[in-house]
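Structure in, sequence out. Go:
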């Protein structure tokens, strides 16, 4: 089981909750990603406050992150288990692990750290 920071209602930072979540197996065209770093930006704050849509509640916030591919879904042939990747503009970064469409991910060169990648993806 993994953890995520979720909101069940809108408000200030007091609505953020560290919770256990279940991460499903990736479907076709998806991967399961172990996230190692995530960016923080005002879109996250606006979603938490209810100024920007965050989808159905409870919601996992965070729009950009970096991590390591753990499991490939059917048809994913441009990535491999163990690849370091990053992504922009895909809500759900405030989690230790997640499922995400493989076509949203960018492979990271060795010269860029996960923290650097997560902070520049937006």
């Amino acid at each position: 089981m993994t953890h995520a920071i979720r909101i069940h209602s809108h408000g200030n930072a007091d609505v953020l909750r560290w919770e256990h979540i279940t991460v499903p197996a990736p479907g076709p065209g998806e991967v399961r990603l172990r996230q190692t770093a995530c960016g923080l930006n005002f879109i996250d704050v606006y979603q938490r406050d209810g100024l920007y849509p965050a989808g159905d509640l409870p919601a996992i916030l965070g729009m950009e992150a970096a991590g390591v591919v753990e499991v490939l879904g059917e048809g994913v042939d441009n990535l491999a288990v163990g690849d370091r990747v990053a992504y922009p503009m895909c809500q759900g970064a405030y989690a230790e692990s997640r499922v995400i469409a493989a076509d949203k991910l960018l492979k990271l060169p060795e010269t860029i750290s996960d923290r650097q990648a997560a902070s520049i993806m937006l």
